[in-house]
Amino acid sequence: MEFEAFDVKARKKVKLINPEVVTLKNGRVAVRGKSPETGITIYRILSKAEAEKLQQKK
Q: What is the Cα–Cα distance from 40 to 25, expressed in whole angstroms?
């Protein structure tokens, strides 16, 4: 599944390289990956509906 997140350095939305689903310490579900534009690590916090959809696929 492809995810897009906002790259602050490039100031635009980019597709994540090697996205992985992680749980943040506050319990929220997010996707972490690298930006193809700048190479920095970026996150996208998922909505509850998106998180449930990912849990059903596993």
A: 21
For 16, residues 6+ apart whose C-beta sits below 8 A from its C-beta are 2, 3, 4, 5, 31, 32, 33, 34, 35, 42, 44
Distances (CA, A) of 54 to 13, 16, 38, 49: 21, 16, 27, 9
* Backbone angles phi and psi of 37, in degrees to 5: -75, -50
**Tens of pLDDT, residues 22-45:** 999 999 999 999 999 999 999 999
